[in-house]
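Hi,

I'm pasting everything inline rather than attaching a file, because the server keeps stripping attachments. The sequence lines come first, and each chain or strand is labelled.
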Amino acid sequence: MTLSVHVKHSFPAFTLDASFEAPPGITVLFGRSGSGKTTLVNAVAGLLRPEQGRVAVNGWELFDTGARRWLPPHKRRLGYIFQEGRLFPHLNVRQNLMYGRWFAPRDAPRAEFGRVVDLLGIGALLDRRPGALSGGEKQRVAIGRALLAAPRLLLADEPLAALDEARKAEILPYFERLRDEVAIPILFVSHSAAEVARLATTVVALEAGRVTRAGPAAEVLADPAVTPLGARAAGAVLEAVVLRHAEDGLTELGAGGLTLVVPRLDAAPGTAMRLRIAAHDVILSREAPVGLSALNILPGTIQDIRSGDGPGALVSLDTAAGRVLARITRRSAQAMGLEPGQVCHAVVKSVAVAPDDVGGGPGMSGLRGPGSA
Amino acid sequence: MDWLGPEETQALLLSLRVSLWATLLGLPLAVFVAYALARWRFPGHALLNGLVHLPLILPPVVTGYLLLLTFGTKGPVGAVLQDWGIVLAFRWTGAALAAGIMAFPLLVRAIRLSIEAVDPKLEQAAGTLGASRLMVFLTVTLPLILPGIVAGGILGFAKAMGEFGATITFVSNIPGQTRTLPSAIYAFLQVPGGDAAAFRLVLVAVAVAMAALLLSEWVGRRVARRVAGQ
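And the predicted assembly:
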């Protein structure tokens, strides 16, 4: 199941010209507000009619200006999860969930009602009205409503942006479950680096209506050129496996032959995990550091150093575990004489951990590494 | 209703029949026109809006006279209708037409306001879930504007009950045929000793108006609660 998008449309102040291909899983459109993310999703949904372009889901064309093909939104078989939920206020939760099913073709592969309700934990809400739901509950119902419409593609336009941190933590695991348990590709709009790191299979970075980078999440996020939100939000994603739980309450993770230590995780040895290391949580050292409280030290080679107008610089380091980003000041980069090709050590102050393949795990909280600096 | 004389009862029942038909037939058209005015941009938008509101600001006599010119047996529309066996002039059906046209602006205004209050984003969401435009209207827009339709309908019904000027000009004041409640009150006041009958009908008019008002508030509140999702 692949998604192929090519859209070109001119607005008075801005031109959208974006193309990308996405494999199964969650494809995150990532970029700051005004970069054209929502416009692009609306074009896929048919809420905007672009001047030029073609969008196809697994070869099934939603529109193709070249072939003069245009399906109206209601014939596209999409599930669109909006930022504000948009539940129908005059219907109860059950009727909201069933709404899309009334219009789905009889022979469409249907998600089983009970399974979706279980997946989203909304069984107790079925007879309530949307007015009596919390923000997080509304959004879970909205996800269910989209899923039950038997869609070929799920669209989610910043579905978490209107929620506070606690509610976000409540919803995120459900999207992980969708990614891992439901075979429908998901196009997900976000401007949050943490969400992207946690959810994305593929990342499409947008800037001023253009795709600046597209590819597998780990690759794109570790590219210092892709900092749509500035170096502040930069961070690298590493794949790791739980090795063992030590007696002192720590869990050891293996990544590319290197060992990382985090506070005890509730996961069996062998479980695949996704680590996010924010660039501002990494310190660099030319020598192998000694006498330091930090436990996670990754040796590597400097691949690239980038600096903008500000005092900061973003250094990317190739380690055996994967690419790690470090945000340091230009002054220290100069004082240390850092250059590409040099061997360097990344001292990691904090690692965020989330389960990679198995959904429904604990939220990806910003676990501070033991003995943090 | 023993305390009402036969003529008075006749006028009341006729008024109820005329107003009911005027409202029932006016509502679907009013919903369509209100939707067009609220949601569509087309050439002639302002003209249509003006036309709909005309009966509200024209002297009712003028509206009645224009109706007579158009729908009278010699009028351009009336002549055609007569060929099909439909006669409006000096019939209760004509009274219903006059009442309907006078009530129409009130129907449209109430319904248009409620349509403008419906978030188009909800209709968009319904579209992405597979509902065609007609189904979006039937399953989302229509239920959500129900309070406006009910309020407009009751207001329009009350207006139709009280319609006098256009009715008497268009269909005259024929007992049993076009003598509605207001026409009857007017007629009783023209004859010596008719004051008592006129006063009884005035009481009826006040009671009907109050009942309509209270009913519309009650239904409106109920439907609004339902639609607000609580």
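The mean pLDDT of chain B is 90.

If the labels don't parse on your end, tell me and I'll reformat.
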